[in-house]
Amino acid sequence: MTQAADCIIIGGGPAGLQAAGRLAQAGYHATVLEKEETVGGKLNKWDKLFPDFYDAKKLKKQLEDDCASSDVTLMTGAEAVKVEPEGSMWKVTVKDGRTLSAPSVLLCTGFEPFDATRKEEYGYGIYPDVISSVELEAMIGKGEIKTRDGRTPQSVAYIQCVGSRDEKTGNHYCSVNCCICAVKQCIEVKQLLPEANQYCFYMDLRMTGQHFEERYRESQEKYNVHFIRGRVSETALTQDGRIQVKAEDTLLSRPVKMTVDLLVLMVGMEPSPSTRHFAEELQMSDPYGFYLSQDHESDDNLTRHAGIFLAGSGKRPMAIPKTRKDADAAAWEIIRYLKQHTR
Ligand code: SF4
After folding, report:
1. Which CATH number is associated with domain 7-110+272-341?
2. Could you state, in order of their start, the residue ranges of all structural domains in the chain?
3. CB-based burial label for 254 (10 Å; 0-12, 13-18, 19+)
4. Among 151, 175, 235, which residue's Cα sits nearest to residue 199?
5. How far is the CA of 128 from the centre of ligand 1 (A)?
6. What's the gap in Å between 187 CA and the centre of ligand 1?
7. Would you give the distance in Å from CA 203 to the centre of its chain?
8. Contact at 8 Å (CB) between 294 and 145?
9. What is the pLDDT of residues 190-207, one digit of tens each?
10. Does ligand 1 come within 6 angstroms of the Cβ of 161?
11. Residue 343's pLDDT is what?
């Protein structure tokens, strides 16, 4: 079956929904293909957003409301598997065999959290109380932070840059969000566990967004989080089932050894399987599998293919506010293209 749309948006996360809403406001029809049974993408796994603790569910609702227009068709459980030219149009094939055609396609296929089992020196998947920042977020969302055997943690350590800026995994890029995410989660953990001591191991702290630096100061001054500059070299399980962490404090040039109840790995961002797939298929992959835009400086939403556009963290790691702005910019580029080529 072929459905008429001005733009087929692949991915119904924040970027896809934002762009669909903007296109609809301008009178263009967008069809959003989302492979999961619900739209929202990673917003569905997040409780509060940094830096202002905005409710992720509320933002999802706002984005959905913007798409509540006859000019947006949301198709869930619809995984796009192929994008190919068809005359002056682009044909998108869905896994179940359906096809759609449109003059433009916007790829919003996003990222996946880094799989921490690839950093075995941190003990993820081996020691029960080594968890990822995604798992900590789920605990925070439920309002209960416990070790696997049900204890209330008295001490929590965090390791930054897990799977980012890392020779071993080959991911040399910075994932941009995990520094401020650690600050946000440290504050939330302290609110839930006022007695807990918290230690955050970092290489650099990159507080690059608006109000990030203020949150970082607040985490130290009001929530007593200890930031230690240094890379953790190894972790081990103690006889009483806690986690021993060995590192070097590179500011004080001395070794650090501590035992904590919970160790949280701040995992970075990698291209999602769909991002890798379409980046490869359309021959526009950067060395890591993210999308390569036509020109990072001036044509960041455009690609080497006329009519194919990009938005969001399938291009590179970005936070939600930047993702939404990027989707706005992509919608504008699509409108410009459609005006030139179809109306
Ligand atoms: S944002 Fe911070 S934790 Fe994440 S990769 Fe960059 S420097 Fe490391």
Report:
1. 3.50.50.60
2. 7-110+272-341, 116-268
3. exposed
4. 235
5. 24
6. 18
7. 20
8. no
9. 999 999 999 999 999 999
10. yes
11. 63
Cα 42 to ligand 1 centre (Å): 19
Q: Answer yes or no: is the C-beta of 140 below 6 A from any ligand 1 atom.
A: no
Ranges of the chain whose pLDDT falls below 70: 1-3, 343
- Tell me whether the CATH fold assigned to 7-110+272-341 matches the one assigned to 116-268: yes
Q: Which residue has the tokens 């619809």?
A: 78
Q: Whose CA is nearest to atom 6 of ligand 1?
A: 174
- The whole-number pLDDT of residue 1 equals 44
Distance of CA 310 to the CA centre of its chain: 16
Give residue 51's pLDDT.
83
Distance (angstroms) between ligand 1 centre and the Cα of 209 equals: 13
- Residue identified by tokens 């080959």 is 170
Q: Which of 318, 312, 342 is nearest to 330 (CA)?
A: 312
- ∠ CA 233-201-141 to the nearest 5 degrees? 120
- Residue 217 sits at the vertex; the CA angle it makes with 211 and 220, to the nearest 5 degrees, is 145
Q: For domain 116-268, give the fold.
A: FAD/NAD(P)-binding domain (3.50.50)
31 CB near ligand 1 (under 6 Å): no
- Please give the Cα distance from 226 to 208 (Å, whole number): 20
Q: What is the pLDDT of residue 130?
A: 98
Question: Whole-angstrom Cα distance, residue 149 to residue 128?
Answer: 9
